[in-house]
Each structure stands twice: as C-alpha cells, then as structure tokens.
Amino acid sequence: MIAEKMKNMVANSSAIRAMFEEGNRLAEIYGAENVFDFSLGNPNVPAPEAVKKAIQDILEEEDPVALHGYTNSNCGYADVREAVADSLNARFGTGFEGKNIVMTVGAAGGLNVILKSLINPGDEVIAFAPYFGEYRSYTNNYDGVLVEISPNTADFQPKLEEFEQKITPKTKAVIINTPNNPTGIVYSEETIKKLAAIMEAKQKEYGTDIFLISDEPYRELVYDGAEIPYLTKYYANTIVGYSYSKSLSLPGERIGYLVIPDEVADSEEVLSAANVATRILGFVNAPTLQQKIVAKCLDEKTDISYYDRNREALYQGLRDCGFECIKPEGAFYLFVKSPVADEKEFCAAAKKYNLLIVPGSSFACPGYVRLAYCVSYETIVNSLPKFRELAKEYF
Amino acid sequence: MIAEKMKNMVANSSAIRAMFEEGNRLAEIYGAENVFDFSLGNPNVPAPEAVKKAIQDILEEEDPVALHGYTNSNCGYADVREAVADSLNARFGTGFEGKNIVMTVGAAGGLNVILKSLINPGDEVIAFAPYFGEYRSYTNNYDGVLVEISPNTADFQPKLEEFEQKITPKTKAVIINTPNNPTGIVYSEETIKKLAAIMEAKQKEYGTDIFLISDEPYRELVYDGAEIPYLTKYYANTIVGYSYSKSLSLPGERIGYLVIPDEVADSEEVLSAANVATRILGFVNAPTLQQKIVAKCLDEKTDISYYDRNREALYQGLRDCGFECIKPEGAFYLFVKSPVADEKEFCAAAKKYNLLIVPGSSFACPGYVRLAYCVSYETIVNSLPKFRELAKEYF
Lengths: 395, 395
Description:
2 copies of one chain form a homodimer.
Chain A: H1 4-30, E1 36-37, H2 49-61, H3 64-67, H4 78-92, E2 101-104, H5 106-118, E3 124-128, H6 134-141, E4 145-149, H7 160-166, E5 171-176, H8 189-206, E6 211-215, E7 238-243, E8 256-259, H9 267-280, H10 288-296, H11 304-321, E9 333-337, H12 343-351, E10 355-356, E11 358-359, E12 368-372, H13 377-392
Parallel strand pairs in A: 1-10, 3-4, 3-5, 5-6, 6-7
Antiparallel strand pairs in A: 2-8, 7-8, 9-12, 11-12
Helix pairs in contact in A: 2-10, 4-10, 5-6, 5-9, 11-13
C-alpha cells in the first residue's frame, strides 16, 4: 500500500528498530545496568538549569495567545531571529540581521527546508563519507542525487582531490558536518580554505552556484580548545544549519535555525523559498515556546567536561584493548576500526557482551563502527572489561 | 537559484505576505484598533489555564534528559500515544491502541507524513472545493495530483455525483475537512455514509485501496450541539489527522497526531512508513514537552462560547447589511458570497474600510470570501459599521 520510495526505507528502518528492540530485550534479561548501549546520539547531560528557569519566566511574562500562537512569519519570531543574529555576530564577527535567520524544527527540519528550497530533480548533492545517513534520505525527498566522496581513513579529513573531480555542472550543494558525526573529527581552517577555493573555481568553470551547507549540531561540542571556523566567512554561498539538540540538550524539542546570509546568490529569493518550504512541508513554524527559550539561553552551554571525561576514558580504554581509532576533537562519537573487514560481524560479536554499537556502513564507511559516548561515565567504565573480552577474540 | 517547484509558490506567497504587510501598514496609519483583520486563523482565545499548570508540573515531575530527549520511537512517547488512544476510545467507542497513534508536528505535519507514506508520483488525491489551499502544496510535495470536486454553493455539502465520477484507478486518497475551513460547514452523518459507500464501491470496482484522510483541526469547535461523526467507524481505510492548534489554542507549538487504525489496509506497513516519514522529513518527533502537555490536557476544551458569540454577531451583522452567507456550524470562519463576480475586487473594496478578508480563490472557490472570526468581540462590533458602508456600494 505504501509509496514505492518508502519501501526500502521501511525495510532498513525495521533493521534499526530491531536493534533497538534487541537492546530492550537484553536490558530485560540482564538488567539495564549490564547493557552498554552506545548506539544512540541522545545527549545524557540534562539541559542547563537556565532552560527550566527560562520556561518558568516565559510562562509568567508572555501573553499566552502570542506565546503559543502562529508566528507572523513562518521563519519565526522577529525578536528571536534578531537575538540569534546578534549572538552570532558577537561570537564570530559576522554581520547577520534577523532576516537572515530562519528558525527551524531542529537541524533535520532546517536541512529539509533548504534542500526543498534549492534542489531540482536530478541535482547532485555531495557528502563526504563517513556521513550522517539521513543526508541521503533528505536529498532523496526532493529527488536529488547524493554523490559520495569516499572516506579518507588516514585522518578522516575530506578527500579534496576526489571532491574536485566529482563536482559537475549538476552539483547544487555540498553538505559538510564539522565536528563530524560519526568520526568526531574537526575540519581544519586549512581544509576549509582549500574546499572553498575548489568550490569557487568550479562555480566559475561551470557558471553555476554551488551551495555549501554546513550542518552544525555539534559546533559547541569541542575539546582541547579546538576552533571551528565559521564557514560563511570563507565562502559566500554558505548556508548554516544549526540545532540546539546537543548544545542545550533539547533534541526532542526540535529547535534550530538556518543562516542564509546576504552574500548567498539570490539570497532574498532563497529566504522566501525557505519561508514557503517551512510552511508547505508542514513545519509551519519552529515550536514557539522553544523559540522563546533558546532566545533566553543563547549564552548557555552544555557541560562539555562531562563528555570530555567520557571521551578520554573510552578512547584510552579501547586503545588499551588494542582497538584502533582517531581521538575525536568534537561531538560525542568515537569511530573505531573494526578488527575484521565485515564490521557487521564485529557488531554482532560485540552484542554477545551486551555492547551495542553501530556499523560504519550506516555512515557509508564499512570496516568501522560508531560508538556514541553520550552515556553515563559508569556505562563507559563498566563496559571496558567487556571490550577487553571482545578484543581477545581478535588480538 | 531556487527549485523550479518553488518558484510559483514563492510568487504566490509574496502576495499573501504583501497582504499581511498591508495590514501592518494600515495599523500604523489608522491604529491597530481601527484595522479589522479577518484574514488569519490564529485563535485569539488563550490556551486553557490547565496548559500552564501542566507545563509547571511537568518541569517538576519529569527528568529533563527524558523530557527534552528524542523519543524512542519517531511516533512519540508510548505513554502519550496510549493516553490519546484511550481518550478517543472513551469519547467515540473506538478500539485504538497506542500503536495506532503517531504524534505529529501539528495537523500540517501529520498530513505531510501520511501523504509521504502513501503517494507515488502521479497518484491522485481528491479534495472538495472549497478546501484549505495547502492540500494542493502538500500533495505536490510528493508529486501527487490534486483532483478538485467543484463547490456546491447551495449548502457547501460535498458534490457526491461529481466525486463518484472523478474517482479513478489512480485515486489514492480523499481529503475531507469537517468542520470545514473555509465554510464552517459540518458534513452530516448521511453525507459521510454516502461518501463511504461510494468509496467502498470504487475500491471494489478498481481493486484498489482508497484512503479517506480526515483533517480534523476543528473537531472540537462546533456550535448548537452539532455532532461530528468519527470517520473510522464508517469506512475502514480512514486515517485521521488531528491538531491541538485550535482545541487548546496551541497553533505555534506544532502538536497533533495521526490515527492509523488496524482496519486500514496493510496498517502495520503504513504505520512503519509513517514512522520513517516522520524521521526523514525532518520532524524526527513531535516536540516532546508539547506531547507531555497534551497528554495532561486531553479533557480540556477551548472556550467555544467566545467564538459562538463572535459567530452570531458577525453572521447577523453581515446578513443585516444584505450579504449572503451560510451560518457556520463549526470552526471559526464565515464564507460570504461576494456581491460581485470577481471577489478579489470585493476584497480590494473592503480594504478601503480597513476590512481585511481573504478571496475564495485561495480555497478554489472564487466568488466568495473568507472571514476568520477568531478575533476579539470588539473587532467584530466595531467592524460592522464598516461592513455597512461597504454594503452600500453594492446593495
């Protein structure tokens, strides 16, 4: 009965659901504390206390009709958009105005809005493997074609030569994600400059506009003082997608934004299209209470030291067991080389020890596995003896 | 730069935005109290006090990590889905379980989820004029073809003969909306039975499944004790889309649900597809705090007497001026016959008196205009002398 396009996706999602149900089944048998679920990127640091305070204040301060009503523009409250622009300008020396900001239903909503706005059937969207698997679905929603750049497993920086070769006159957008899911890698400023230069040259060569879409839900989650360049300063046709899911631990509330700078080609038209896309895709507007909350919490941060402790413990622990992995500089994922070529086999072996990890094929990078370390420190500490047992099967 | 599909929509939406900006411009010149804006369906009755109380209680009761986190299923919290099912069963004698409920980002989100789940390119979706113009955009999102049944201006009940003729082997869905936007009409039980019988017969004739999608944001907004039949009881392949936008005055918060009953053909597959569609369209899940709020407010109702007073005043007032309209039995719209064939001309004339009303062409029903009476009673009382002056131009 269902749409043809959905059939494969339903089949695949059943596999993920099966994994989730397996986790629940194991927890029932062994107790939740004896199941080590590294499969989900659901933050376990609570939202800052300021979020609760913001909600309580908003309920007292705001007229409920305005608070819970439709926003005048589908792009969100004017004051919230201005506050977001001001905050970005203060942090990054940019020159955005409220009109450049589109409040969205999380980063996933924002990516759909901008792809709907830009993509014609057959247009190509480039992503660097390993990448968040949903990019393929989002591109497919608008009959675009996802073009993959193969993974550079040496250091997981993007393969720029292959990138240059794969840009065609049909390339409409390039999605990058730094800090990266699933590797935790941060693209260096040098990488960004090279990437921008390649895109500039190709725009000239083909007489096209190629949009750089920077998917930044992990921007605030960086370690060891790593710097995340603000992409709009390096390449004019840059559109930023942001989410408060990780930075304020609000993933279920679905709140984020797009930045569409004036420097983007036909920026007014793109902004109008994003406004319409927000409406007709059924978002209508980002949840209004959440818009007001984030405007009050622009300077709040999640407790990065919590994730940092997990990062150190898991990275060191796995290295000590003999596993190979690159130390993440951001996000809350560790991308580990599977000791056998078929990483799904490795995931199955891990499950025998109640270790739940995700195969790299889900991120277009077979031979690796992703561990999300947004779990409790105890989970990590208690999982290490299990990883040691698992390692003994291979080393 | 923008996608071809978006170009017309951006052009049209500019017209709507122009109207909105015109309202703001008039308000600046004449004062907001002298501008009578009947153009928007944004409820002006505040959310029940119980909503505020629910938020405060939830903040105290719930673990913030769980409260603001991703839900385990993209369809929403299991306990919320069960509570919604139980509430429907108690009210309508249905037999739903939690698994039949998909929490959505409002009704607009729900309609997009179900159309994405069902529609192949070229599939036909039938709507009865006058209808909410977004149905065309939503259908177009998935390359479906909206097939229009012409309006029955005698009483705005659906034209069932034309409906029967226009069902083809490509008809995948029929959208109905009762109480109706823009007419305020309620489909009688007799109408529903006939409609169901036609659809049953056509399913048999063509060997197809034709889904009845009941878009019900106005279910609770009925007057004079009118009854809204619960559609799943009349036709097996019925899917209900609901929203709390009007019933709890939460339109900006984007919270509603789909009901996909077991009786629907391949219901498990359709439910799986709705789950995946919720994810890949970028909704991910309905906002989590709002899910918890509505679960606590299932028995709350908006103050219908407020809208009823507006209805009576506006309906009588306009009739007294000589305008023709059918008295609405539900929702908060009045659909008025334009005294001239080109209703856009009439809307322009009304604007001279600072009366902002929407042309029926936006609802595929030229020759009529829509007035949204979810405004203050004072707005209605003060607008009537203006309508009287306007009427003098015609009668």
